[in-house]
Amino acid sequence: MKNIFALIVFFLLLIGANVEGFGQVTYTSNGTCSPTQANYMTTQSCWTKSGTCNASAFPPSSGTAACSVIIEINHQINLTSFNLGSNVTLKINEEGILNISGNLTQDQEISSSIVVDGGELNILGNLKPTSGRNNQPPTELNISLINNGSIFFRFY
Question: Which domain of life does the UniProt lineage start with (predicted)?
Answer without folding.
Answer: Bacteria
